[in-house]
Amino acid sequence: MNDDGRRSLEEWLRSAWGPHAGCPPPEGLLPAELGALDPAERRRLEAHLRDCPACAAERDLARAFERELAIPDADVQHVVRRLRRGPARPRRRILGLALAAAAVLAVAALALPWGRWSVPPPVPAAPSAELPVRGAVIGTLEPEGAIPSRPDRLAWETVTGAAAYEVTLKRPDGEVLWNDRVGGTEAVLPPGVKGTIEDFVVYSWTVIAMNDNGRTLGRSRWIRFQVRPVDDEVTP
Amino acid sequence: MELDQLTDEQLIERARAANGPSGESCLQVLYRRYHERVAAWCVRISGDRREAADLAQEVFLRVHEKLDGFRMESRFSTWLYRVARNVCINQGMARRRRRMASLEEENMPEPRHPGPDAETEVARDEILARFRRAMQTDLDPLEAKVLYLHHVHGLTLAGITRLLGLENKSGAKAVVVSGRRKLQRKFGRWLAHQTAGADGSIP
Question: What is the largest CA-CA distance in chain B?
Answer without folding.
Answer: 79
